[in-house]
């Protein structure tokens, strides 16, 4: 006989609706934490959560329990072991309940326990980061984080991509100056490795070497940025997904991005249905509509040059942007991106072929000499979700661009060499994992989608 | 009609042996890199690898090619696009070949290309870390790394474990003093976060908070250690897997470790068969026997105290250890561990209940007051593969042990608080991912299982 030991197993049997299966459930043993406990003297109700499922299970106990007095005083948060009888309750609020035969105390709760049955603000919960995963909202967030991680691995592995752990300790960076430095001795910071050491801001440079061996590869790991910004989207430590594909151009890249985004949304809807429903009900009531729209709408493409014309036209017609000086060569701001995806495209939109001056040195120069084969994916409600490009595979052009960017040729010679040792056209993209999490949950602060967020001035726990 | 665009797809169709399927393959287009190219004037053979599969595909071309002269001079490493006809060759060395219709150059190779058709030493290949994934050995290693990563995720996710990204920037550590320090300004190292910042050596402390919300959780991410050691097993940056399970004791922990190790070995044998065969033939001819033995032998258990008696007896009977002073309380050396697992248990062996003095403060004190509920899994050929323990869930005892370890109570109060807010018995373990990789491949230097290894004094690329 199959054993049912978790709340998830019980819900799944019941949701699956297999009567034969359910008939087998009789006595159950559960362990978990009390969410609420109320008792009227003769009958008591405990909402128990064991962490395996978003929903609680209702325990019903009576004064016949040996330790009834004790049990009736168990506080929210108490860890208990339960034995009881599983009973379907087709007319109840819950589909089933457990008629308790015994309850044993596993771990008591001090009355100072800060999580009580009331709404706590996100700001307050950040101050108890070690406890907030126990709340409904953060339980949903961090399970989604796990489910989305798996979605990413399955998406790439199913297609034969090789997962590469690019190094975090590095001497090079392609992501600007806001980098953390690492040392064992601050007075002599180069003493351990013999050279200046940074925390990586991207695995792309390194993973390109692996694309030249395995064709299709991806990274998924932590990255770091030491910007002194305290906005809702900045974190000092965050996770990135960076696929790199060989024998591929910008169109191949965009096809992969579209597949990936749609796959991940579907995967989360399928594998975290209770959590997604919760987000839609409590966090962002437009969430499901937004996500369903994205998975059902082919992604559009628009040249950067056309985007600029459209924005100019919008300004002329009276649309107000904070930055209304629209000119070719500018970097698009979030307000511009959202206008393009929400008002113009009314759905997911790739902007392609950006001016080379505002993009990175490694992006492939187009024949016009002015633009590079880059794409940003914009989505309604958020703006930029993914950034990608075809990479510059021509040795001489890449070298010139690196010189123009004042990069150390010595440090990057191996990267350049990938272009003269059987190089090929290749492309890749980056997804900020937390950005994706915010998009999928409706949570609007990066601090609330990271287990223990690190931001400028804040590193608690 | 299905498209066959990669070498893997062709091999899988042929290996699967579906004649109808194979009949559908006619014209194919491939892209890849030349491994070898030989031409006798009228007929030429190219071994092509496209990174998707461990084996090469044979291209056969004749002097009828428009660019025959050019093609016949393509060097090892050249990237090409190929069109041709798929032909089964049941009597050939390969099961099939491609009769070339056209070859186009995608990327040439400079004659200085350091990878030629000959054996290169591991030491030499470390000096060309950006190219070594293209060699057979490192291609096999880094695909196995990807496959093993996925094995770990599937093992835990299939059982409902929640994947937690514990932070790498941290103010606390439970793994000793050899930690890297992080700052934006070495003259004022606390300026960014307002406190001293380390790179994490373990996610365990943080993930315990999540086990108290989700019951079953795991981490899988980078960790750091700044030991000034240059041995074949030390790296400054490496990956760790750290599961943590609530409502679980040491026996549950060991059952999970055994399941995990066996699952991962089976998964790699199934999903990287060519690579595993290669390791067995070229790297360690005892590999398959060793792994098959492990997956077919129930893991044994032995008390530390008994292990000491057995080692004493062995010394008495003339067995030579480098460290032959065996006494209760000592930390077992690798030679002792290997004797126990290879000679005594002749298979995987858990040593349990170690003296508390040689184990970490967070391990649960046994009733004897002398030992803790810890387990190390020893396996033949390697010694320690996994270390785990039941955690101390009793507030007062944990607090006392932390005081004895001179830990800052202020920094760890939140960790202690997990014990007074509905704590429960729980356990967990850690697997060094690179150690596991070495075990599964027979590769005996950690530098050769990491994409871009970082070790004391070495941070190239």
Write the layout of secondary structure elements.
Two copies of one chain form a homodimer.
Chain A: H1 7-16, H2 19-23, E1 27-39, E2 43-49, E3 57-62, H3 68-72, E4 79-88, E5 96-107, H4 122-126, H5 136-158, E6 162-163, E7 169-170, E8 181-183, E9 198-199, H6 204-214, E10 216-224, E11 237-246, H7 250-271, H8 273-283, H9 287-296, E12 300-303, H10 304-316, H11 334-344, E13 349-355, E14 371-379, E15 383-390, H12 395-404, H13 409-417, E16 426-432, H14 433-441
Helix pairs in contact in A: 5-7, 5-8
**Gross geometry of chain A:** elongated
Spatial extent as radius of gyration of chain A:
27 Å
* Helix and strand run of chain A: HHEEEHEEHHEEEEHEEHHHEHHEEEHHEH
Q: How far do the termini of chain A sit from each other?
A: 44 Å
Question: Percent of residues of chain A in beta strands?
Answer: 15-25%
Derived structural class of chain A: alpha+beta
**Describe the biggest sheet of chain A?**
8 strands, mixed
Strand order, largest beta sheet of chain A: 6-10-11-16-15-14-13-12
Q: Write down the oligomeric state.
A: homodimer
Total strands of chain A: 16
Structure notes:
The structure is a homodimer of 461-residue chains. Chain A is α+β, with helices and mostly antiparallel strands and 461 residues long. Chain A is 33% helix and 24% strand. Chain A is built from 14 helices and 16 strands. The first copy, chain A, has helices spanning 7-16, 19-23, 68-72, 122-126, 136-158, 204-214, 250-271, 273-283, 287-296, 304-316, 334-344, 395-404, 409-417, 433-441; strands at 27-39, 43-49, 57-62, 79-88, 96-107, 162-163, 169-170, 181-183, 198-199, 216-224, 237-246, 300-303, 349-355, 371-379, 383-390, 426-432. In chain A, strands 6-10-11-16-15-14-13-12 form an 8-stranded mixed β-sheet, with helices on both faces. Chain A has a 5-stranded mixed beta barrel with strand order 1-2-3-5-4. A two-stranded antiparallel sheet of chain A has the order 7-9. In chain A, α5 (136-158) packs across α7 (250-271) and α5 crosses α8 (273-283). The radius of gyration of chain A is 27 Å and the shape is elongated. The two termini of chain A are 44 Å apart. At the A-B interface, β1, α5, β6, β7 and β8 of A face β1, α5, β6, β7 and β8 of B. β8 of chain A pairs antiparallel with β8 (181-183) of chain B, so a sheet runs across the interface.
């Amino acid at each position: 006989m199959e054993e049912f030991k978790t709340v998830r197993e019980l819900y799944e049997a019941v949701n699956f609706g297999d009567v034969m299966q359910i008939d087998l459930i009789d006595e159950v043993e559960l362990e978990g934490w009390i969410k609420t406990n109320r008792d009227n003297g003769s009958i008591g109700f405990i909402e128990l959560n064991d962490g395996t499922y978003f929903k609680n299970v209702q325990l019903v106990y009576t004064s016949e329990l040996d330790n009834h007095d004790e049990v009736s005083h168990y506080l929210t948060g108490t860890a208990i072991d339960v034995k009881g009888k599983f009973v379907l309750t087709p007319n109840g609020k819950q589909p089933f309940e457990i008629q308790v035969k015994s309850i044993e105390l596993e771990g008591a709760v001090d009355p100072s326990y800060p999580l009580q049955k009331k709404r706590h603000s996100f700001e307050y919960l950040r101050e108890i980061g070690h406890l907030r995963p126990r709340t409904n909202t953060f339980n949903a967030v961090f399970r989604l984080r796990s489910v989305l991680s798996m979605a990413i691995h399955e998406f790439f592995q199913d297609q034969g991509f090789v997962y590469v752990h690019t190094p975090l300790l590095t001497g090079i960076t392609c992501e600007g100056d806001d980098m953390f430095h690492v040392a064992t001795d601050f007075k002599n910071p180069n003493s351990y490795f013999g050279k200046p050491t940074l925390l990586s801001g991207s695995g792309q440079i390194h993973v390109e070497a692996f694309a030249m061996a395995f064709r299709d590869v991806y990274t998924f790991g932590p990255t770091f940025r030491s910007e002194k910004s305290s906005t809702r989207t900045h974190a000092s430590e965050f996770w990135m997904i960076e696929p790199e594909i060989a024998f591929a151009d910008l169109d191949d890249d965009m096809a992969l991005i579209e597949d990936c985004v749609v796959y991940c949304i579907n995967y989360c809807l399928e594998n975290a249905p209770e959590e997604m429903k919760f987000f839609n009900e409590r966090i962002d009531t437009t969430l499901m509509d937004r996500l369903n729209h994205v998975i059902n709408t082919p992604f559009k493409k628009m040249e950067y040059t056309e985007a600029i014309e459209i924005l100019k036209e919008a300004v002329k017609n009276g649309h107000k942007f904070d930055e209304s000086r629209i000119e070719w060569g500018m970097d698009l701001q979030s307000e511009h991106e959202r206008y393009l995806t929400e008002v113009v495209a009314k759905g997911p939109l790739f902007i392609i072929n950006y001016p080379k001056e505002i993009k990175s040195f490694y992006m492939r120069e187009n024949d016009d000499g002015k633009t590079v084969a880059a794409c940003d994916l914009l989505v309604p409600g958020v703006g930029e979700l993914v950034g990608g490009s075809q990479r510059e595979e021509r040795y001489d052009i890449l070298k010139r661009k690196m010189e123009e960017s004042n990069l150390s040729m010595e440090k990057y010679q191996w990267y350049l060499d990938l272009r003269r040792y059987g190089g090929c056209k290749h492309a890749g993209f980056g997804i900020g994992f937390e950005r994706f999490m915010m998009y999928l949950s409706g949570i609007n602060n990066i601090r609330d989608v990271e287990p223990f967020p690190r931001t400028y001035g804040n590193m608690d726990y």
